[in-house]
Design a protein that fits this description.
Elements lengths: L1 H13 L13 H10 L1 H6 L4 E4 L2 E4 L5 H17 L20
Antiparallel strand pairs: 1-2
Amino acid sequence: MRHYLEYEIPEFLKQSPIRDKGLPLGNYLSWGLAGLYLLPLDLKIQRPFLRIQDDYLIFCKNKKEPEKILKQIIEPKLERLELKLNINKLNSGKFHQNPV
């Protein structure tokens, strides 16, 4: 499985005509690919989190922890997977005060 995650799936996606566009919303293939492709990132996050396709909600105890997780875990792993973080969707705050 590791071989497919690191070599086969990325190579397949590089040749895809939808590269840099993503899969259409509601496409069941996007759920499966997100689950397989983001599994290494899921395993690296040491905090409780919720992931729906490629959107993460990570629960932290203080204000400094999200930035640390982003810089030390998420950004390096996304770079290795050749994925980009959408800064416009990035948000941090108190869960009980901010709408999700």
